[in-house]
Amino acid sequence: MNLRGILRSRAPEATHYGGAHFLGDCSGGVIAALIALPYGLAMASLMGLPPVLGVFTSILTAPVIALLGRNPVLIGGTASATVPFIALAVRNHGIGGAALLSIMASAIMIGFWGLRLGRHITRVPHAVVTGFSCGIGGMMLISQLDTIFGVASPFTRSASTTLGQLAAVVDHLADARIVPVVLGLAVILAATLAARLSPHAPAPLIGVALAIVLARVFGLREKEVGTLPAMLPPFVGWSWNLKAMIAMLPSACALAFVSSVNILITSRVVEHFRGRHKRMTPADADAELGAYGIANLCAGVFGAPMSVGIPARSLAVVRCGGTTPIANLLHAVFLVVILWIGSGFVSHIPIPALAGVTAWMGLCLLDWSAWRRLPTMSRVDAAAFLATAGTVLCINAVLAVAIGCSFYVVQAAYVRWFRPARIPDLQVP
To answer: Which of 103, 220, 320, 332 could cysteine-pair with 300, CB 3.0–4.6 Å?
Structure first.
């Protein structure tokens, strides 16, 4: 099938592809790339990976997603939902172990496609998805406090839970330094203001640029990202140790499930903003998971973290007038150009500025509207929301979604087997 045929099948409104369509795709691709750059660097750094790998996730997966994915403007990249899983793998097994985990999860996603499970994953209750998002947002914010306050140490990073890390940071607040606090807060405030003034603005990039200016003008010296290679990363070596793979299997299944939920929910949100309020067809839901599974296999062999749907980039494409998969391809092309030409700018980004980007995205994920709706939620929805968010912070993300969904399983079992039948009212003559 030629390019015009692909566009016709994936974006019927762009059957007669012309200059206006290309301008919208090009504008959306530029903004998506500008958003992706600081966020990808920050996410990979948070996972314990070389920062540039977070950018190469988008570059390596975009062509496959654009060719095989069903939502033409769903932009993928490194995201917060995968952070707990990959960070744990890096901590326990190194970069090679994290690559193996991503490859296993990608294979499981392809299995979801083959077994046609995508259509069922879309049924995960909204309260669980929202609670997971809020929990991840809190985790992202707390995980960067030590860097923003300049108290990063083995005591804060060795905590087994997010709340434990928060306690360690509070214990070391007496050692806080003013320079990283200024740079981190500058990014958060600038990004917040830019996002409020214009939804099209690359808010994280504006915040990072301000931090660089402040560091240069006032001589604020902090550790920087350093030179980023503008070439394809080498293949990552890993050991096909059966025992290690079996040990990783629960995390790989959880990572595949959470990534699949993220992709399908994000696709649903993007379609809503495109004015399409119908649910994704079962076949499209299955195929979307297959496309991302294949794409993530390509990224995993280079050690790049998994790609999932990114709401900010996808909605930026929609708001800029993008309508076809070409926007996704262009977003990857512009990222390569930025790395190749603008590597000098990127190398001078202070590490506290990247921490500020992560903290800001965490604040965005906290979904304040969900907390305001909490008193009006049903008891089951409220309990699932709080339990999912709390489990992410107190234990880990592997159990969070399962615990949240368990409330609905218990409710269904109670209604079916234990709820007493209602006795009809007697009619009194």
So the answer is: 103
Based on C-alpha coordinates, what's the Rg of the chain?
Answer: 22
Domain boundaries, the chain: 19-411
Where do we find the tokens 């390509």?
298
Give the number of other CB atoms < 10 A from CB of residue 167. Answer: 14
Q: Which residue in this structure is represented by tokens 């994920």?
A: 365
Q: Which two tokens stand for residue 408?
A: 């609905």
Cβ contact 71:271 at 8 Å:
yes
- Read off the DSSP letter of residue 15: S
pLDDT of 282 reads 83
Number of C-beta neighbours around residue 327 at 10 A: 33
pLDDT confidence of residue 160: 64
The DSSP-derived string for 247-285 is HHHHHHHHHHHHHHHHHHHHHHHHHHHTT--SPPPHHHH
Token pair 């300049």: residue: 150
C-alpha closest to that of 68 among 359, 245, 263, 349: 263
Which residue carries 């500025």 as its tokens?
Answer: 353
Parts of the chain with a pLDDT under 50:
426, 428
382 vs 384: CA distance, rounded Å: 6
In SS3 terms, 112-177 reads as: HHHCCCHHHHCCCCHHHHHHHHHHHHHHHHHHCHHHHHCCCCHHHHCCCCHHHHHHHHHHCHHHCC
Phi/psi-derived region of residue 322, left when phi > 0, alpha when psi is between -120 and 50, beta in every other case: beta
Nearest to 67 by CA among 295, 312, 262: 295
In angstroms, rounded to a whole number, what is the distance separating the alpha carbons of residues 348 and 346?
5
Give the list of residues 6+ apart from residue 153 with CB closer than 8 angstroms, or none: 146, 172
Q: Are strands 308-309 and 76-77 parallel, antiparallel or unpaired?
A: antiparallel
Q: Are 132 and 389 in contact (CB under 8 A)?
A: yes
* Separation CA 238–CA 24 (nearest Å): 42
- Residue from 6, 203, 288, 240 nearest 103 by CA: 240
Half-sphere exposure of 226 (CA within 13 A, CB side): 6
For residues 319 and 237, give the distance between their C-alpha atoms in angstroms, rounded to a whole number.
Answer: 41
pLDDT at 5: 55
